[in-house]
Structure formats: C-alpha cells, structure tokens
Amino acid sequence: MHDAPTIALTKSDITLFQNLGGPGRRPCLILYSGADTGRPFALDAGRVVIGRAPDAAVHIDSPGLSRRHAELTVSDEAVTLRDLGSFNGTHVNDRRIDGEVALREGDLVRLGDLLFKFYEHHSLDAALHDRVYRLATIDAGTEVFNRRYLFDTLRREFRLAKGDRRALSVVCYDLDHFKAVNDTYGHPAGDKVLRESATAVRHALMGVGVLGRLGGEEFAVVLPHVEHGPATELAERLRATVADHVFVLPAPGAPAGATAVHRQTISLGVASLTETMQEVIDLFEAADRRLYAAKAGGRDRVGS
What we know:
Blueprint: H1 11-18, E1 28-31, E2 40-42, E3 46-51, E4 58-59, E5 70-74, E6 79-83, E7 90-92, E8 95-96, E9 101-102, E10 108-111, E11 114-119, H2 124-137, H3 147-164, E12 168-175, H4 178-185, H5 187-205, E13 210-215, E14 218-224, H6 228-244, E15 247-250, E16 259-262, E17 266-272, H7 280-296, E18 302-303
Parallel strand pairs: 3-4, 17-18
Antiparallel strand pairs: 1-2, 1-11, 3-5, 5-6, 6-9, 7-8, 7-10, 10-11, 12-14, 12-17, 13-14, 15-16
Helix pairs in contact: 4-5, 5-6
C-alpha cells in the first residue's frame, strides 16, 4: 500500500490559509515567473494599474515591464484587462490583446516577460494550487527553477520571439571540475557549492531572465528581449561573480569544525535567436556548443 502524497507547509503558508475564505473574497493574480513565483496580488475594486511605476497598484520592478504596462478594471460582475501602450505587449493565454478583454478563472496573463495566473477569488483552493505549482517548478537543492520549468519558459519565449521578431538569448553554464569538489570535500560540501553558486548567480542577474538547473552542475538562463552583446556582457558578470565568491567548506581529514576555503569557477556559452533557427533546440544547442568551446579553451571563460 502506497503512502498518500503530502505537502509540507511553512508558517507563512498556514498564516495565509487562515486569512483566506469568508464573504467578499477578492480576485487575485498569482505570479508564475521569476524569483517570487507564487506571490499573490489581491485585486481591489476599481481600476488597478500594473507596472514599474512606484504608484502602480500592482508594482513590480522588472525590466521587461513598462512603467504603466496594463490596467485591470475590477467589479462584482467582471475583471477586464487592457494594455496601456506597453513596449512588450500584454497577452492572455499567449494571444496578444487589442482592446479590453474579460478575464476568466485560470487565464494566463503575460505582461512583458512576467507570467501571472488569474483567479476569480483568492481562495484556499487557489493558494494550495500555487503552493503545489511552486513545489513542482523549483529545484529543491538550489532554490532556482528546475529543468522542466526552464524549458517550458524557453519554448514559450521562443514562440513569442519568433512571432514578434524580438530578441531572445540563452546562457548555458556549468561548474568547472565539480567532480573534484565532491571527491575532495564530500557530497554535502558539493551540495553547498551548488546552492551558494546558484544564489550568487541569481543575485548577479538582478531580476533579468530566468535561471534554472538543468541537472547536476549544469544551469541555464533564458533572457527574453536581450540581444547577443548585452547577453555576453551579462555572462561575463556571472562568471566574475562566481570566481570572486569565497566558499567555506569543511576541511577534509581535519577535526570537526575545521574549515577550508574553496574557489569555484564556471564556464559559460551564449547564443541568441537568429532567423535560421526554427526550433527551440537550435538555440539551446548553440549555447551548449559555446559552453563546451569555453571549457576546451581553458575554462573560467565565456564562449560567445
């Protein structure tokens, strides 16, 4: 007999669930991309502006979002959405909208490079659904997105970039000589290096792109709206960030509590969408080839 599946709840989960329910429940958007995946935005009645402007009711500081990107009109009868002349457009279920559109339960709303899911009520069901969604999309060992989410994002961005003739870049990277880390310091220390390096890279991205773990010591970053030159500059920043980070690990063969300093490097490959690329795999493999060229060229460098 198999055990029933369980969901681990944090104190913040329990607090959120206790505050849900009852009359007058408001509609909400739940963020489905970026580092804050799962973050809910309850929508008050009236006009709700979404954008980077400090006075936007739904304020998100993302480079792909216009200052006043889109507006929701929230009433007891319906929630409607319209674009406010944004640079990157507003999409509902992957279709760019022109004019005002009524939202329905479960609609996917894309504003620039941010993805939301719309719920008619900020209910317990919605919160549980998105808790499960987060558990299914985040790599437990590094707290960045997992392979499935990363490729779902890449496929979606590839389709949108081809359709709108806009920029899209990918950076692939892996940790140099990582097997030696496990062999020298042990697997728990190797897990720490994976986790700390991923955190350092995520901070260096400063909200740009989607970082995910492909498996083992291999990672990738999807960069919507980013041309090849800026993507290469960003990759160099990621390389330098990891190279400068000091990893403090348990000293091998020493008494308990003794530590050793470890320096880790990464090799990276950068590729950008071209007219000749017809499939997602064309773009990804171009970045992967340049990663391996960087490794063959001596590691701790960017192949572009």
